[in-house]
Write a structure and sequence with these properties.
two-stranded antiparallel sheet; Beta-lactamase; Beta-lactam_cat; Beta-lactam/transpept-like; 43% helix; 5-stranded antiparallel beta sheet
Length: 287
Protein backbone atom coordinates (compact mmCIF):
# COMPACT_ATOMS: atom_id res chain seq x y z
CA UNK A 1 0.00 0.00 0.00
CA UNK A 2 1.43 3.37 -1.04
CA UNK A 3 1.06 6.03 1.67
CA UNK A 4 3.31 8.61 0.00
CA UNK A 5 0.24 10.53 -1.15
CA UNK A 6 -0.34 11.61 2.45
CA UNK A 7 3.25 12.55 3.31
CA UNK A 8 5.14 13.61 0.16
CA UNK A 9 3.21 16.90 -0.28
CA UNK A 10 4.27 17.77 3.28
CA UNK A 11 7.95 17.06 2.68
CA UNK A 12 7.70 14.01 4.93
CA UNK A 13 7.94 10.28 4.53
CA UNK A 14 6.68 7.42 6.65
CA UNK A 15 6.63 3.71 7.28
CA UNK A 16 3.53 2.04 8.66
CA UNK A 17 1.80 -1.25 9.41
CA UNK A 18 -1.53 -2.53 10.67
CA UNK A 19 -2.29 -5.96 12.11
CA UNK A 20 -5.53 -7.63 13.15
CA UNK A 21 -5.23 -8.54 16.83
CA UNK A 22 -7.40 -11.63 16.42
CA UNK A 23 -5.92 -13.42 13.42
CA UNK A 24 -2.63 -11.61 12.80
CA UNK A 25 -3.39 -10.50 9.23
CA UNK A 26 -1.51 -7.36 8.27
CA UNK A 27 -0.61 -4.87 5.60
CA UNK A 28 1.76 -1.94 5.47
CA UNK A 29 4.11 0.43 3.70
CA UNK A 30 7.86 0.17 4.25
CA UNK A 31 6.98 -1.84 7.33
CA UNK A 32 10.31 -3.67 7.58
CA UNK A 33 12.49 -0.55 7.43
CA UNK A 34 14.32 0.14 10.73
CA UNK A 35 13.07 3.14 12.71
CA UNK A 36 14.14 4.81 15.93
CA UNK A 37 11.75 4.24 18.83
CA UNK A 38 12.36 7.28 21.05
CA UNK A 39 9.66 7.16 23.79
CA UNK A 40 7.85 4.26 22.14
CA UNK A 41 10.49 2.17 23.97
CA UNK A 42 8.52 2.85 27.16
CA UNK A 43 5.92 0.37 25.98
CA UNK A 44 8.53 -2.40 26.12
CA UNK A 45 9.69 -1.20 29.53
CA UNK A 46 6.10 -1.24 30.81
CA UNK A 47 5.49 -4.77 29.54
CA UNK A 48 8.67 -6.19 31.08
CA UNK A 49 8.09 -4.36 34.37
CA UNK A 50 4.47 -5.52 34.68
CA UNK A 51 5.50 -9.08 33.75
CA UNK A 52 8.12 -9.10 36.50
CA UNK A 53 5.56 -7.85 39.00
CA UNK A 54 3.23 -10.67 37.97
CA UNK A 55 6.06 -13.19 38.37
CA UNK A 56 6.76 -11.92 41.89
CA UNK A 57 10.23 -10.61 41.06
CA UNK A 58 9.32 -6.96 41.75
CA UNK A 59 7.36 -5.52 44.67
CA UNK A 60 5.25 -2.83 43.00
CA UNK A 61 5.00 -0.90 46.28
CA UNK A 62 8.79 -0.72 46.71
CA UNK A 63 9.74 2.91 47.46
CA UNK A 64 12.22 4.64 45.16
CA UNK A 65 14.07 7.81 46.13
CA UNK A 66 14.23 10.32 43.27
CA UNK A 67 17.04 12.84 43.63
CA UNK A 68 18.52 15.63 41.54
CA UNK A 69 20.97 13.13 40.04
CA UNK A 70 18.02 11.21 38.55
CA UNK A 71 16.18 14.15 37.02
CA UNK A 72 16.54 14.66 33.27
CA UNK A 73 14.08 17.52 32.91
CA UNK A 74 10.62 17.30 31.40
CA UNK A 75 7.37 15.94 32.77
CA UNK A 76 6.70 13.97 35.95
CA UNK A 77 9.55 13.33 38.39
CA UNK A 78 11.96 14.29 35.58
CA UNK A 79 10.94 17.91 36.17
CA UNK A 80 10.45 17.90 39.95
CA UNK A 81 12.21 20.67 41.87
CA UNK A 82 12.74 18.68 45.06
CA UNK A 83 13.73 15.14 45.95
CA UNK A 84 10.83 12.78 46.41
CA UNK A 85 9.96 9.19 47.26
CA UNK A 86 7.52 7.26 45.13
CA UNK A 87 6.62 3.62 44.52
CA UNK A 88 8.13 1.89 41.51
CA UNK A 89 4.58 1.14 40.30
CA UNK A 90 3.72 4.83 40.26
CA UNK A 91 6.95 5.55 38.42
CA UNK A 92 5.83 3.11 35.73
CA UNK A 93 2.48 4.91 35.55
CA UNK A 94 4.18 8.30 35.12
CA UNK A 95 6.48 6.83 32.48
CA UNK A 96 3.51 5.75 30.40
CA UNK A 97 0.94 8.45 31.12
CA UNK A 98 3.09 11.60 30.88
CA UNK A 99 6.17 10.08 29.16
CA UNK A 100 8.37 10.73 32.21
CA UNK A 101 11.96 9.97 31.15
CA UNK A 102 13.45 9.85 34.64
CA UNK A 103 10.69 7.47 35.73
CA UNK A 104 11.59 5.23 32.80
CA UNK A 105 15.25 5.24 33.87
CA UNK A 106 14.36 4.28 37.43
CA UNK A 107 11.96 1.52 36.39
CA UNK A 108 14.64 0.00 34.13
CA UNK A 109 17.18 0.25 36.94
CA UNK A 110 14.74 -1.55 39.25
CA UNK A 111 13.93 -4.40 36.86
CA UNK A 112 17.40 -4.71 35.28
CA UNK A 113 18.61 -3.34 31.95
CA UNK A 114 19.53 -6.84 30.80
CA UNK A 115 15.89 -7.89 30.98
CA UNK A 116 14.95 -5.05 28.66
CA UNK A 117 17.72 -5.84 26.19
CA UNK A 118 16.76 -9.52 26.02
CA UNK A 119 13.02 -8.90 25.61
CA UNK A 120 12.90 -8.78 21.77
CA UNK A 121 14.62 -12.18 21.47
CA UNK A 122 12.27 -13.69 24.03
CA UNK A 123 9.29 -12.43 22.03
CA UNK A 124 10.68 -13.37 18.61
CA UNK A 125 10.96 -9.76 17.44
CA UNK A 126 13.93 -10.21 15.12
CA UNK A 127 14.08 -6.62 13.88
CA UNK A 128 13.88 -4.91 17.29
CA UNK A 129 16.91 -3.77 19.30
CA UNK A 130 16.61 -2.34 22.82
CA UNK A 131 19.79 -0.78 24.19
CA UNK A 132 18.46 0.97 27.28
CA UNK A 133 16.39 3.64 28.96
CA UNK A 134 16.37 7.37 28.03
CA UNK A 135 19.47 8.15 30.11
CA UNK A 136 21.47 5.52 28.22
CA UNK A 137 20.53 7.11 24.90
CA UNK A 138 21.31 10.64 26.10
CA UNK A 139 24.68 9.54 27.46
CA UNK A 140 25.49 8.17 24.00
CA UNK A 141 24.54 11.52 22.45
CA UNK A 142 26.87 13.32 24.88
CA UNK A 143 29.71 10.99 23.89
CA UNK A 144 28.97 11.51 20.20
CA UNK A 145 29.26 15.27 20.70
CA UNK A 146 32.35 14.96 22.94
CA UNK A 147 30.47 16.50 25.87
CA UNK A 148 31.50 15.49 29.40
CA UNK A 149 28.17 14.50 30.94
CA UNK A 150 24.40 14.98 30.83
CA UNK A 151 24.52 18.19 32.87
CA UNK A 152 26.93 19.70 30.37
CA UNK A 153 24.79 18.39 27.50
CA UNK A 154 21.73 20.12 28.96
CA UNK A 155 23.63 23.44 29.11
CA UNK A 156 24.86 23.02 25.53
CA UNK A 157 21.37 22.27 24.24
CA UNK A 158 19.84 25.15 26.20
CA UNK A 159 22.44 27.55 24.81
CA UNK A 160 21.84 26.32 21.26
CA UNK A 161 25.54 25.57 20.83
CA UNK A 162 24.83 22.44 18.81
CA UNK A 163 23.24 22.65 15.38
CA UNK A 164 20.29 20.56 14.31
CA UNK A 165 22.51 18.85 11.76
CA UNK A 166 25.06 17.95 14.44
CA UNK A 167 22.33 16.52 16.66
CA UNK A 168 20.81 14.48 13.86
CA UNK A 169 24.22 12.96 13.15
CA UNK A 170 24.35 11.43 16.63
CA UNK A 171 23.37 7.88 17.55
CA UNK A 172 19.91 8.85 18.84
CA UNK A 173 18.79 9.52 15.25
CA UNK A 174 20.42 6.39 13.82
CA UNK A 175 18.35 3.17 14.00
CA UNK A 176 21.56 1.16 13.81
CA UNK A 177 22.86 2.73 17.03
CA UNK A 178 19.85 3.29 19.27
CA UNK A 179 16.59 1.70 20.42
CA UNK A 180 15.03 0.63 17.15
CA UNK A 181 12.34 -1.54 15.62
CA UNK A 182 10.11 -1.71 12.54
CA UNK A 183 6.45 -0.92 12.04
CA UNK A 184 5.75 -4.63 11.49
CA UNK A 185 7.56 -5.68 14.67
CA UNK A 186 5.64 -3.06 16.64
CA UNK A 187 2.23 -4.34 15.56
CA UNK A 188 3.40 -7.87 16.33
CA UNK A 189 4.38 -6.71 19.81
CA UNK A 190 1.05 -4.95 20.32
CA UNK A 191 -0.75 -8.14 19.33
CA UNK A 192 1.34 -9.98 21.94
CA UNK A 193 0.36 -7.39 24.54
CA UNK A 194 -3.35 -7.61 23.78
CA UNK A 195 -3.31 -11.43 23.74
CA UNK A 196 -0.92 -11.79 26.68
CA UNK A 197 -1.58 -12.80 30.30
CA UNK A 198 -4.78 -11.04 31.32
CA UNK A 199 -3.57 -9.14 34.43
CA UNK A 200 -0.42 -7.92 32.68
CA UNK A 201 -2.20 -6.99 29.45
CA UNK A 202 -4.97 -5.16 31.32
CA UNK A 203 -2.55 -2.85 33.13
CA UNK A 204 -0.49 -2.06 30.03
CA UNK A 205 -3.70 -1.32 28.11
CA UNK A 206 -4.85 0.93 30.96
CA UNK A 207 -1.59 2.89 30.86
CA UNK A 208 -1.78 3.23 27.08
CA UNK A 209 -5.37 4.41 27.36
CA UNK A 210 -4.35 7.16 29.80
CA UNK A 211 -1.50 8.66 27.72
CA UNK A 212 -1.81 12.44 28.02
CA UNK A 213 0.48 13.26 25.10
CA UNK A 214 0.24 11.95 21.57
CA UNK A 215 -3.04 10.72 20.14
CA UNK A 216 -1.65 11.36 16.66
CA UNK A 217 -3.16 8.33 14.99
CA UNK A 218 -6.61 8.92 16.45
CA UNK A 219 -6.91 12.56 15.31
CA UNK A 220 -9.36 11.60 12.54
CA UNK A 221 -10.62 8.29 13.92
CA UNK A 222 -14.38 7.81 14.24
CA UNK A 223 -15.75 8.78 17.65
CA UNK A 224 -16.77 5.21 18.40
CA UNK A 225 -13.17 3.97 18.20
CA UNK A 226 -11.45 3.43 21.55
CA UNK A 227 -7.74 4.23 21.11
CA UNK A 228 -4.76 3.10 23.18
CA UNK A 229 -1.41 4.65 22.29
CA UNK A 230 2.26 5.33 22.93
CA UNK A 231 4.00 8.13 21.10
CA UNK A 232 7.57 9.31 20.72
CA UNK A 233 9.29 12.37 19.26
CA UNK A 234 12.64 13.85 18.36
CA UNK A 235 13.29 16.83 16.11
CA UNK A 236 12.44 15.51 12.67
CA UNK A 237 10.75 12.34 13.97
CA UNK A 238 7.10 11.72 14.93
CA UNK A 239 6.16 8.21 16.06
CA UNK A 240 3.06 6.54 17.37
CA UNK A 241 1.87 3.00 17.89
CA UNK A 242 -1.68 2.26 18.91
CA UNK A 243 -4.49 -0.22 19.17
CA UNK A 244 -7.93 0.78 18.00
CA UNK A 245 -10.88 -1.13 19.40
CA UNK A 246 -14.08 -0.91 17.35
CA UNK A 247 -17.64 -1.39 18.68
CA UNK A 248 -18.12 -4.47 16.46
CA UNK A 249 -15.23 -6.25 18.18
CA UNK A 250 -12.46 -5.53 15.66
CA UNK A 251 -9.11 -4.66 17.20
CA UNK A 252 -6.32 -3.25 15.08
CA UNK A 253 -2.68 -2.72 16.06
CA UNK A 254 -1.27 0.24 14.11
CA UNK A 255 2.22 1.73 13.88
CA UNK A 256 3.21 4.86 11.95
CA UNK A 257 6.72 6.37 12.01
CA UNK A 258 7.18 9.69 10.18
CA UNK A 259 10.27 11.68 9.19
CA UNK A 260 9.65 15.42 8.99
CA UNK A 261 11.75 18.00 7.13
CA UNK A 262 9.68 21.12 7.83
CA UNK A 263 8.03 22.69 10.86
CA UNK A 264 4.60 21.42 9.80
CA UNK A 265 4.20 18.90 12.61
CA UNK A 266 0.43 19.30 12.97
CA UNK A 267 -0.11 18.64 9.29
CA UNK A 268 2.12 15.57 9.46
CA UNK A 269 0.21 14.30 12.48
CA UNK A 270 -3.02 14.59 10.49
CA UNK A 271 -1.32 12.67 7.68
CA UNK A 272 -0.39 9.97 10.18
CA UNK A 273 -4.04 9.67 11.16
CA UNK A 274 -5.14 9.56 7.52
CA UNK A 275 -2.63 6.79 6.95
CA UNK A 276 -4.03 4.86 9.90
CA UNK A 277 -7.55 5.13 8.47
CA UNK A 278 -6.35 4.05 5.02
CA UNK A 279 -4.60 1.03 6.53
CA UNK A 280 -7.79 0.09 8.36
CA UNK A 281 -9.78 0.25 5.13
CA UNK A 282 -7.15 -1.82 3.32
CA UNK A 283 -7.12 -4.48 6.03
CA UNK A 284 -10.91 -4.73 6.13
CA UNK A 285 -11.10 -4.91 2.32
CA UNK A 286 -8.83 -7.95 2.36
CA UNK A 287 -11.12 -10.01 4.60
Amino acid sequence: MDLDRFFAPLGAKATAHIRDIADGRGTGFGETEPVILVSVVKLFIAWEFRSQVEAGRIDPAAPVRVTAADRLGGTGVAGFRYDSQISVWDLASLMMEVSDNSAADLVVKHMGAGALRSLPARLGLKDTRLLGAPRTILEAVARDLDIADLEALAHVLEAGSVTTAELRATSAWDPMRTNASTAADMTAFLRHVWNGPAPVAADVRRWMGRQLTGGRLSRLAPSEVKPFGRSGSLPGRLNEVAVWEWPDGRRHAIAVFAQVTRGNFREVELAMSRAALALTEELDAGQ
